[in-house]
Specification:
The chain contains 8 helices and 8 strands; from the N terminus they run βαβαβαβαββαβαβαα. The chain has helices at 21-30, 53-60, 80-85, 101-110, 156-167, 182-191, 200-203, 212-228; strands at 8-11, 35-41, 66-72, 90-94, 114-119, 137-141, 173-177, 195-198. An 8-stranded parallel beta sheet has the order 1-8-7-6-5-4-3-2. α6 (182-191) links the parallel β7 and β8. Bound molecules: D-xylitol-5-phosphate and zinc ion.
Length: 231
């Protein structure tokens, strides 16, 4: 995984066909997705349950780009090896998931994955400052995690800009997750995000059998973000 700051569109499979992840992943990749975003929820850290490492391992075979696994679970540490075995390229844990995030990020890297740190909307981005050198990615949540299709929280745009400034010239991706559509893609790209997670706004209007809308959605998001890009 080489580092660059170009805009990457990462469809969230939370909005895909749960009975046929493989085909939907192949379809969005064929239509231009840069990364595949995989949301793991435990019904404890967030009020919803999605799937676990066995499912992630099964879908790995269908991912040719980058498998970006977003853990909305607590605790994280007992499951790091399972997600490494499942083939995650990036493993992201929430700062709010436990008291020892520093150790968690170290353990993710030790297991051979890129480390991601996610921040809930209620968490000030300054809280990530002491952890940045352990991060390959920081994910700013622009919804409260747990569900797809929620409204973008506008006040998070300022936090994205602050985070981008804190990162400076370090090779750390700025990811944004939640409510990304054509309008908000511009806002977050202008603020300095380079990885745009999008569920509803990618999968809307298409199916794996008729994937043309996936491609149109991805291209439109990329264009909106590229046109607005700040740096
Ligand atoms: C929210 C998840 C997101 C979600 C985004 O808890 O982390 O990845 O799928 O969905 P949209 O793009 O529909 O807001
Ligand atoms: Zn996510």
């Amino acid at each position: 995984m080489d580092f660059d700051r170009s805009i990457k569109i990462a469809p969230s499979i939370l909005a895909a066909d749960f009975a046929d992840f493989g085909r939907d992943i192949e379809a969005v990749e064929a239509e231009g997705a840069d990364w595949i975003h995989v949301d793991v929820m435990d019904g404890h850290f967030v009020p919803n349950i999605s799937f676990g490492p066995q499912t992630v391992k099964a879908i790995r075979k269908h991912v040719r780009t980058v498998m970006d696994v977003h853990l909305m679970i607590a605790p994280v540490d007992p499951y790091i090896d399972a997600f490494a075995q499942a083939g995650a390229d990036v493993l992201t844990a929430h700062l709010e998931a436990g008291p020892h995030t520093h150790r968690t990020l170290q353990a993710i890297r030790s297991a051979g994955m890129k480390s991601g740190l996610a921040l809930n909307p209620g968490t000030p981005v300054e809280a990530a400052a002491p952890l940045l050198d352990l991060c390959d990615l920081v994910c700013v949540m622009t919804v409260n995690p747990g569900f797809g299709g929620q409204a973008f929280i506008e006040s998070q745009v300022g936090q994205i800009g602050q985070l981008r400034a804190m990162i400076g010239d370090r090779n750390i991706h700025v990811e944004v997750d939640g409510g990304v559509d054509l309008r908000t893609a511009s806002l977050v790209a202008d603020a300095g995000a380079d990885v745009l997670v999008a569920g509803t706004s990618v999968f809307n209007g298409g199916t794996a059998a008729k994937p043309r809308a996936y491609g149109e959605n991805i291209r439109a998001l990329r264009e909106a973000a590229d046109n607005a890009k700040g740096d």
